[in-house]
Structure formats: structure tokens, C-alpha cells
């Protein structure tokens, strides 16, 4: 279920918060032998409506902006450590995960997930068939994420594990044959 962005800074987000984000890609003409266009995510639109087909937003000489998809940004209470790391950066990001236009029959990229968790982004990148780009986090999403982390983050103390003593070779031989 999708939830609206909080209207005021003091509101408490739900534990299972989902926010629809419209994903905007830029298509730019490039001088390349094998590729005419370069696609790149450039923005997300908080609270964007779902779309059935990509929508052209603006275009100019050799470039165009498309609203390619509306995807749900899901926040999970057990990932607040990663959210805090994102918020601590100079410019917090929303990561857009997408499949290259070269693998798509219509020649357009396919965004399939948005996240604010760098660990999740890295997990997708480990497979090698996915591209990920960060776009600047819009102020409403930033406010929501800050409130979410304030509400649900719990510091877990680091526990160093105890080393087990080495078993001498002679004892191991007697015990294990």
C-alpha cells in the first residue's frame, strides 16, 4: 500500500513505508560509432502517478527527458543503518536500478527498482547485468527518510567474538583418530 509523503516535519512515518517515485531519464545524442543515444537517470518525482507508457517531459536539440516509470521506494526498519550512511553524505542519493536499453526490445532502458540503501544497490550490481545510478534525493524524500531513521533506528553494539583456543595436533589425533 502506498503512503503519502508526510505533510509536516513532525509526523511519524509508518514502519512499512512505501512512496511512489517517478523515474526521469535523460536521452542524449552522442558521437559514438555503435550507439546513437545515451540514457541516464537524472531525477525522481515524489508522489508521481503510475504510468502505462513512457511520457516525454521536455526535449531540446539532441536531448529529451522521459518519465519512464513510477516505482515504489520501500523503507525497512532493519536497514536504517544504511539509510543513516546515505544521509551522512554531502548529497544523499536515491539509487535507480535499471537494465540497459541494449537488452530491451524497444530500445529504452528499463528501470525496475529505486532504493536509498547503498548495500541493496551493491547486491544488485554484483550480478553484472544491472546498471545503477544515484540521483539527488528530493527534499520531501529526504525529510521522510530523516524522520524514518529518527523513529526506527536502533544502534546495535559491536560484539567481538571470542577466539577459541587452538587444539594441539596430538590431542586432535587422539580424539579424531
Describe this protein's structure.
The structure is a single chain. The chain has 177 residues and is an alpha+beta fold. The chain has one domain (17-154). It has helices spanning 80-87, 118-125, 139-152, 169-176; strands spanning 17-29, 37-46, 55-60, 63-75, 93-99, 110-115, 131-136. The strands form two sheets. It has a four-stranded antiparallel β-sheet with strand order 2-1-4-3. Helix 1 crosses helix 3. The radius of gyration is 22 Å and the shape is extended. The model has no long low-confidence stretch (mean pLDDT 87).
Question: Number of folding domains?
Answer: 1
| Biggest sheet record | 4 strands, antiparallel
**Rg, alpha carbons:** 22 Å
Secondary structure category: alpha+beta
Estimate what percentage of residues fall within beta strands: 25-35%
SSE succession: EEEEHEEHEHH
Helix content: 10-25%
Secondary structure layout:
Elements (H helix, E strand, L loop, with lengths): L16 E13 L7 E10 L8 E6 L2 E13 L4 H8 L5 E7 L10 E6 L2 H8 L5 E6 L2 H14 L16 H8 L1
Helix pairs in contact: 1-3
Task: Briefly summarize what is shown.
The chain has helices at residues 80-87, 118-125, 139-152, 169-176; strands at 17-29, 37-46, 55-60, 63-75, 93-99, 110-115, 131-136.
